[in-house]
Amino acid sequence: MNNVQAIIADDHPLFRSALQQAAAQVISSERIREASTLMELHSLLTQHPETELLFLDLTIPGAKGLQGLAEIRNQYPDILVIMVSANENSDIIAKAMALGASAYIPKSSSLDVIGDAIHCVLEGENWLPPLADLPSTEHNEQADFARNLEKLTPQQYRVLAMIADGMLNKQIAYAMAIQETTIKQHVSAILKKLNVYNRTQAGILFNQLSTLGDHQDALNITETKL
């Protein structure tokens, strides 16, 4: 496990340091890199395609909640993602797992618990907080949508994000410098893959991923036990 390449993406230096300490129990510290924004994370992933493990803060700047996780899972499906957050809302945890996270670690967790979670994920298992009481997602529209997002190509994902922003096909085509007919083909493929009826439904479900509930990491970081 010491050969695993990892990135810690969190905008709080104190928590990045704590994660470094916890991860160093399992991973060589020389193989752990850090990012404080989603843009920095993408830059690191481009520079280091060998990255195998990612610690992703739910509210890292640029992420727009769970849209950040969805974006990473779409572009880098082979990377194991461990979500870290002060938000312990069961709906958020369930959505993160549906989007393909391998673990969800509350920032109130001790270093030993974080170490156990990392070890579990590297052994190929998912990890959840011991007392997590997650709602059933078996027939949940949002959960189905989250799972289907992985079927989109990176270009289709980009089109979906623009649809969610309210852009018309003509505007999307201009932004991507491609023909409007190509955008129409992308939209048709997106609706089919996501199993939704129209672009409005797709946009609404996508935007719901940015809903974080009432508790924000920035407000709770001082309450962590790290």
From TrEMBL:
Domain of life: Bacteria
This protein's UniProt keywords: DNA-binding, Phosphoprotein
Family annotation (PROSITE patterns): HTH_LUXR_1 (PS00622), HTH_LUXR_2 (PS50043), RESPONSE_REGULATORY (PS50110)
Keyword Phosphoprotein: yes
SMART domains on file: HTH_LUXR, REC
Domain named HTH luxR-type: residues: 145-210
Alphabetical list of SUPFAM superfamilies matching this protein: C-terminal effector domain of the bipartite response regulators, CheY-like
Coiled coil region boundaries: none
Keyword Mitochondrion tagged: no
Residues that bear 4-aspartylphosphate: D57
InterPro entries in the cross-refs: CheY-like_superfamily, EvgA-like, NreC/VraR/RcsB-like_REC, Sig_transdc_resp-reg_C-effctor, Sig_transdc_resp-reg_receiver, Tscrpt_reg_LuxR_C
Domain Response regulatory: start-end pairs: 5-122
CDD domains assigned to the protein according to its UniProt record, in alphabetical order: LuxR_C_like, REC_NarL-like
Protein name per its UniProtKB record: Response regulator
Taxonomic lineage from the root: Bacteria, Pseudomonadati, Pseudomonadota, Gammaproteobacteria, Alteromonadales
